[in-house]
Amino acid sequence: NLYEPRCSEVVEVILKVRELPLITFDDVYGLCVDANGNPIAGEDGVSPPVIDTGLDPGLYTFEWMFEGVLLPNGAGPSIVAAQAGEYTVTVTEIATGCQAWAVATVVLSSPPLTYSATETTMAFSDSHIIRVYAEGLGTYEYQLDDGPFQDSSVFENVLPGSHTVTIRDVNGCGSVTLEVGTIGYPLYFTPNGDGYHDTWGIPGLELIDPTATIYIYDRFGKLLKELSAVGRPWDGTFNGHQMPSSDYWFRLDYIEEGVKRQLKGHFTLKR
To answer: Cα dist. 182→130, 264, 266 in Å?
Structure first.
């Protein structure tokens, strides 16, 4: 047997790796519509949404499809979404022919179409709760007065008085603001003319009964002042004279949900 030697040679091969273009879309885009499904402008120009690849059209070509159908006007790096559904873009690098693709989802969204805000606790409860109801095509978040927006539609431990509730669509399709009152009475007031707690009354009482009447007494049972729900609060005087620092009592006669009610309590005047 003849032995035939085998020859080998090492050859260096250079591989060039071409990085595909990076396409980043939002998780969801919102297309704002009204109650009849007609497109409307969103806040700060967010609707109709623009889906943008952010790529240079001098380096890439673009092919857009909507729900699997080629869009004839989809040859640029971005597209205006006029319908809700799935948009797909295929990006081709001109120099190499390398391709990448990405998908964007557009959903219908709307301002709140049906909404309300109510206190679910009785007047003069120890703790007040406001519940908000909102229905529409959007996803909503809620704000009490100037506080932060929250996902929950329930506000607990609300102070007595008049409040505003704002309901807004998270996709920027609009918001509404409501007024709602919770009823309670201050435990003290300081009529010293500094602009803070200078008078005593029951904020928001007119919301449950504009005909309600408050009677204020000193500790001996002497009637000092009679207040109406829509009138001015007590300034701490009797017949033009300043009353001293002390505890004072009151009786409130009012109607809530068609039932006559009476509340008795006391508060402190501080000088």
So the answer is: 8, 18, 19
Task: Please name the residues in contact with 138: beta carbons below 8 A apart, sequence gap of 6 or more.
Answer: 30, 109, 110, 111, 112, 169, 170, 171, 173
Segment 9-36, tens digit of pLDDT: 777 776 666 677 788 898 889 899 998 8
The pairing of strands 114-119 and 99-109 is unpaired
Predicted confidence (pLDDT) per residue in 32-73, tens digit: 999 888 888 887 777 899 999 999 999 999 999 999 999 988
Q: Which tokens go with 199?
A: 């008078």
136-177, pLDDT tens digit by residue?
999 999 999 999 999 999 999 888 777 899 999 998 899 999
Q: Which distant-in-sequence residues (6+ apart) come within 8 Å of 72 by Cβ? A: none
| Residue labelled with tokens 């508060």 | 267
Please, are residues 39 and 46 in contact by the beta-carbon 8 Å criterion? Answer: no
**Dihedral sign of CA atoms 195, 199, 204, 207 in order:** negative
Structure tokens at 231: 């009138």
Identify any residues that bridge with 86 across adjacent strands, giving them in sequence order.
Answer: 105
Amino acid type, 13: V
* CA–CA separation, 129 and 155 (whole Å): 6
Element (H, E) at 108: strand 99-109
This prediction's pTM: 0.63
Q: Are 56 and 27 in contact (CB under 8 A)?
A: no
Amino acid present at 210: P
At residue 15, the pLDDT reads: 64
User: From the CB of residue 29, how many other CB atoms can be counted at a distance below 10 Å?
Assistant: 21
Q: How many other C-beta atoms lie within 10 A of the C-beta of residue 64?
A: 22
| Phi, psi (rounded to 5 degrees) for 206 | -65, -15
Distance CA 76, CA 69 (A): 16
